[in-house]
Design a protein that fits this description.
- The protein folds into two domains: 3-195 and 248-322, ABC transporter type 1, transmembrane domain (ABC transporter transmembrane region fold, Up-down Bundle), CATH 1.20.1560; 342-583, 3-Layer(aba) Sandwich (Rossmann fold), CATH 3.40.50.
- 65% of the residues lie in helices and 11% in strands.
- The chain is of the alpha/beta class.
- 32% of the residues are buried.
- The protein is built from 21 helices and ten strands.
- It is elongated, with a radius of gyration of 36 Å.
- The chain binds adenosine-5'-triphosphate.
- Adenosine-5'-triphosphate binds at residues 117, 351, 353-354, 356, 358, 376, 378-384, 424.
- It is a multi-pass membrane protein.
- InterPro entries: AAA+_ATPase, ABC1_TM_dom, ABC1_TM_sf, ABC_transporter-like_ATP-bd, ABC_transporter-like_CS, P-loop_NTPase, Type_1_exporter.
- Residues 19-310 form the ABC transmembrane type-1 domain.
Amino acid sequence: MKELQHLNKYFFKYKWQLIVGVSMTIVSKIFLLFTPELIGSSIDIVNEYLEGQVTDIAVVKKELLINIIYIIGAALITGVLTFFMRQTIINVSRYIEYDLKNEVYKQYQILPLKFYKNNRTGDLMNRISEDVGRVRMYVGPALMYSINTITLFVISIGFMYKQAPLLTLYTIIPLPILSFIIYKLSKEIHKRSTVVQQYLSHLSSSTQESFSGISIIKAYGLEAITSKNFNDLSETSKQKQLSLVKINAFFFPMMILLIGISNLIVIYVGGLQYINGEISLGVITKFIIYVNMLTWPVATVGWVTSMVQQAEASQKRINEFLKIIPEIKNTAQEPSLINGDIEFKNVHFTYNDTNIEALKGVSFKLKHGKTLAIIGKTGSGKSTILDLIGRLYDIDKGDILIDNIPIKNINLTSLRDSIGYVPQDAFLFSDTINNNIKFGKEDATQDEVIQAAKYAQVHKNIMGFNKTYDTVLGERGITLSGGQKQRISIARAIIKDPKILLLDDSLSAVDTETEEKILKHLQNVAKDKTTIIVSHRVSSAKNADQIIVLDDGKIMQSGSHETLIDTDGYYKNLYLKQLSESAK
Ligand SMILES: Nc1ncnc2c1ncn2[C@@H]1O[C@H](COP(=O)(O)OP(=O)(O)OP(=O)(O)O)[C@@H](O)[C@H]1O
């Protein structure tokens, strides 16, 4: 139960609803227990009349009528209270589920990129959906059934013991056995349903993957193999389902069997006691009703125990993520005003997980409003420089200064707010083009969206779609070309009007003519912005104020386009190669 203590703060938050819910549960069970008592006394009065102890039929009728009215009244009150009990306790469990989901999601948001590399998306999704769902079962149903059982058990056993102690003892003997069997069954059901769940998610993720990669499957003629894989997987999934159905089928027969045994004991032992004149017929009737009333709550003890164990395991998994302290800490509480000067001083950086030293003593200085182009072979560390400016990682050695202040002393939110980042593979949400661009500035006007799209040279394409800016992208909508995606991603960064604009090879999928136009517009838009353009093309870099050439994490060359094409080296070679290619 140690892990579940995390939920105590939520129990405290909803204490009043819980207190009301628990009280209603107790009162509703008290009313429920009126019924066996009233039925028992009705049987007794009829029996007394039959045996001649009561002779006036009017007395019998009156008592029966009163009992019937009481039974109906008690049933009504129990019904109303049960409704409100569910409305409070089950509602609280939903509130806590909602709060816990938000807590986990908020934690996901502050965890570093490394966390996402080390954990699979499916696992992240499971903890926020299935695990939280299991914890809810502990907060709601488990709590409710436990109170139910305790109340019913304490009161009815009290009543029963007062009337026939020996019979009570015999009657409750099968109950712990029932509880134990249900516990074992619930554990097995849980084990098998987890396997079924795993196969189902396996099946759905492999189906989803084959739909996403349908063009590759068709191009390579792999339809038959994919169908066979699907068949095999769904066959195994079916077998697992059947094994679950089998164990589930035991549940109710087992309960009916144990209720039957308890009833037999009551009738047999109670019958003997009746013959000996120790108890009345009414007592036997009451006991049969009590046994039936108690069986389900007692069975739930086993069920609840297994539910609590599952919740504990799920909360443990949730806590593992909640306990992670993000490495990147925001030490500056006050917002920082960012101007856009960037300086790298002998920066060294190694990715912990791969141990790859991506930057080995990189130094450069960029004044605000200026443009830096970074050129270099693949894997030379270009994207890493951009990630470090956004402080997605902290460096090992050296200094990164923003406006002459060490990056760690800058307010993290202000820093990221002042950056417009266009990643290497443009990611667009399954939403309208409008909303995808507005992601950079939520309150942007339509004119601003159009202007940004014009600067990014994508306005004409958008106007060519039937629903123009309301065109939905992604799974439910149209598929854009790589170049269109990149340009929408650029529009998103432009609309943000950031102090620092980072373009990570984001013009690679557009033709050189469009690239030229975008860069020209960027020169105007980015007049007061510090811009860094990562590229493999000299055409993207040539107008930059400063160019650096990276090789294996080190700066190999730096200078302006003019000086670099006059110097033998990587840049000049690349320039000549690309010049001859464009002349072909
Ligand atoms: N998140 C990461 N975790 C571990 N290693 C990484 C990570 N990102 C990059 N690397 C490694 O760091 C090195 C530099 O990568 P980086 O992405 O900065 O290169 P790049 O110059 O931008 O390459 P490209 O031109 O192909 O985009 C590479 O060897 C890469 O494998």
